[in-house]
Amino acid sequence: MYFTLLAGALLFADFGSACFPNGHAAKHLVGWTPPLVKPEIRRVPRPIQNKIAINNVRIFDGYEIGELTTIVIDGDVIGTDASGAECVDGLGGVLLPGLIDSHCHPLTLEHLGQMSSYGVTTAIGMGCSPEPACNTLRNQTGLTDFYSAGEIATSPNSTHATPPTGPPDLISNANQAQEWVNQRVGNGSDFIKLIAEANGMTQAEHNAIVYQAHQAGKQSTTHASDIASYRQAVISKTDIIQHSVSDLLLPVDLVKQIIANNQTVTPTLTVARVVNANPLFNPSGNGSFHNATLNAGIMHKAGISILVGTDSNLLNAGINVAYGSSVHDELENLVSAGMTPAEVLRSATILPARQFGLKDRGIIAPGYRADLLLIQGNPLQNISTTRNILRVWNAGLEYTLA
Ligand SMILES: *[C@@H]1O[C@H](CO)[C@@H](O)[C@H](O)[C@H]1NC(C)=O
Ligand SMILES: *[C@@H]1O[C@H](CO)[C@@H](O)[C@H](O)[C@H]1NC(C)=O
Ligand SMILES: *[C@@H]1O[C@H](CO)[C@@H](O)[C@H](O)[C@H]1NC(C)=O
Ligand SMILES: *[C@@H]1O[C@H](CO)[C@@H](O)[C@H](O)[C@H]1NC(C)=O
Ligand SMILES: *[C@@H]1O[C@H](CO)[C@@H](O)[C@H](O)[C@H]1NC(C)=O
Ligand SMILES: *[C@@H]1O[C@H](CO)[C@@H](O)[C@H](O)[C@H]1NC(C)=O
Ligand SMILES: *[C@@H]1O[C@H](CO)[C@@H](O)[C@H](O)[C@H]1NC(C)=O
């Protein structure tokens, strides 16, 4: 950091204009399409005064990688005017919007730091308890931005009800749905998470919770990793289905219903690889990572919106998926499933931003949050180059503890 700042200062002194030859980059990018959403104006701006001009970078616009240019970070957003900016050499690297993990379980600030160090600037928690403790992870300046479901909805005899991770408030009747959802919303859940599984909630319970979530103005999202659970999630019309199907190939009728319902899917192939290899989680041996991958490809090809999520969690939980680095595993897994590198990058940036109503992020454009990941290499030719991380910024603040 110190060295680069020094180099930037020298550059500024020797070749003054080199710091801001062409302002921000977005306008003249090949294939550039204007942002579909207007960034939200922050009501309470964060007290960040920095202004940084990153020279010598190529911007990924969601589709293509542009010519070498300069981009300005102004406070916590992308700016347009480089005057007075401190210069940083982008080293000819590629600048991506910060990555979004749409299925993770960070529990501490250290976990958010691990995510930051891998360029994951937004964490979408898929269940977290106790809720007041989870809320302490929110709005951490300079760290990965955290949104989450609180307690998960599951029923007494299900695997997910098992202590220590089982939630205290279990569902054993559809009539509990309204009060249960109110509790979650009252404690700050951004959306509602349900579990579909063998010995889990009834269809009536699923339907009631999804209905109540929508009444409360929240999206619902449902864990389902086998075909029977997928059917429950589809019938309930939940907004997002978590995981892929591991035990059978998806029949055409089910795929059609997912499309008709406009449901999004987060296949989490990274955790499918781990659980299907473990008899504890795949007792009858009927699940496979291969089937999960084929099904992710089938859904993508059918036009279903796919998000990048990992199920990253505490490594000692028995389902070992590491915070941050696993997002890069998932990008590779989804390319193996048949998506293009540009598609998986959109599934880790603009698509989840829209899905979760985070209108201030997901693309690199003036006014948007300066969540940025600078890498070396061309991710459109080789998705694994996203691992070659040079620098990371969370809302304009560089994360330097990588
Ligand atoms: C986080 O910040 C947002 C936007 O400024 C605010 O609405 C929300 O209440 C904050 N949450 C916490 C837990 O501080
Ligand atoms: C849970 O399982 C026990 C025994 O396995 C059974 O007696 C009970 O009825 C089940 N409860 C529910 C809600 O399914
Ligand atoms: C919030 O969560 C705590 C701990 O899980 C719980 O005791 C409390 O009832 C919840 N409050 C609301 C308003 O939901
Ligand atoms: C994978 O899917 C195929 C085709 O539906 C099925 O026959 C098989 O049992 C599934 N599971 C495994 C472990 O291959
Ligand atoms: C595969 O086994 C699991 C239990 O491990 C079960 O819940 C699921 O229904 C089975 N799938 C099929 C297609 O039989
Ligand atoms: C489909 O879902 C997306 C994401 O939730 C939403 O933005 C869009 O408006 C929905 N489309 C329709 C036709 O409901
Ligand atoms: C893709 O990039 C990774 C990370 O830089 C590198 O290890 C790998 O060799 C590259 N693969 C090819 C085919 O170039």
From TrEMBL:
Pfam families in the cross-refs: Amidohydro_1
InterPro entries: Amidohydro-rel, Metal-dep_hydrolase_composite, Metal_Hydrolase, Metallo-dep_Hydrolase
Example GO molecular function: hydrolase activity, acting on carbon-nitrogen (but not peptide) bonds
Domain Amidohydrolase-related: 94-394
PANTHER family to which the protein is assigned, alphabetical: ALPHA-D-RIBOSE 1-METHYLPHOSPHONATE 5-TRIPHOSPHATE DIPHOSPHATASE
Keywords, alphabetical: Signal
Record keyword Signal present: yes
Taxonomic lineage of the native organism: Eukaryota, Fungi, Dikarya, Ascomycota, Pezizomycotina
Protein name: Amidohydrolase-related domain-containing protein
Gene3D superfamilies: Amidohydrolase, Urease, subunit C, domain 1
Signal sequence coordinates: 1-18
Keyword Protein biosynthesis carried by entry: no
Entries under SUPFAM superfamilies matching the protein: Composite domain of metallo-dependent hydrolases (SSF51338), Metallo-dependent hydrolases (SSF51556)
